[in-house]
Amino acid sequence: MTITVLDSYSAMKQILRAPAGDREDMLRSMLDPIAGMYRYFPEEVDLVAFHRQSAGFPLDRDEQRCLDALETLAEAGTWERVQQALYAAAAELLAATPGFHAPDITVLLLLGDPGDANFMGPSLGVTGFGGISGYIMITLWPYPENLERLECTAVHELHHNLRYSPGGVVWDPMTVTVGEHVVGEGLADAFARQLYGDDLGYARLGVPSLHDDAVFAKVVSGLDITGMQNFTAWVHGDTIAEHLGVTPVGLPTGAGYSAGNRLVDTYLAVTGKTAAQALHADSAEIIATALECTGGRPGRAAQSAT
Fold first, then answer.
1. Is 298 or 249 the better-scoring residue by pLDDT?
2. What is the pTM of this model?
3. Which of 16, 207, 260, 285 is the most buried (most CB within 10 A)?
4. Cβ pair 299, 259 in contact under 8 A
5. For the chain, domain boundaries
């Protein structure tokens, strides 16, 4: 298994320093190695347009602010730390899942858009896309909290990538359930916590509602909903959903992450498995085990989390 972390630092610096008219073509060339990440989209993806829609760094403003942020990422050793963390985490996952053959993975680290209020605010300056086998993309702004959690963010996405790789769990966009997405986030967080501890391992998005029983109950009520077009509100919450034009359902930001952690923690406590060993565990089994054990309420394992 080979993990290639692209040298996006050099590429982004060149783009941001280039004449404005040259930047789109340069960006398209930088993004081309991860074009396969969009292979399941119904139509060919315009990589530059998708970059803009996904809060990637701007091409027509904030150049110096972005260049300064790039230097902050470089000084923090971002690219080196992510590569080392991914290899160490991959070894842990493969040791726990004998017989599973992981794909080679291409990783792109992108600077986010400081002018995108949703990205910088509710999304806390970091998003990850790791669910397509063989590719991981992380978009971030160097808030201190994000720099501190670089490794956790990377291994969270790696867990997604290997969970949904051939030989693992099949993600069918039409039939997949909210429950699978929620459990996937919980498992990925649990794996980051397995390696780096609870203080760093939780995705920041879900921490505020981690102990909110009403939020947990609301998410549980939607676990059987199918079709990933419905998922944003249930997993990321109403604010992010409304930003993307998705109907809200009455949940705070990160609700699916907090509920997923509670379900997964109970399951792991009952079975004695680690998050690495549960890489390909069936989400329906995880949910049924957790809810049977707790009567629909968080178990002691979840309650004790901090």
1. 249
2. 0.93
3. 260
4. no
5. 1-168, 170-306
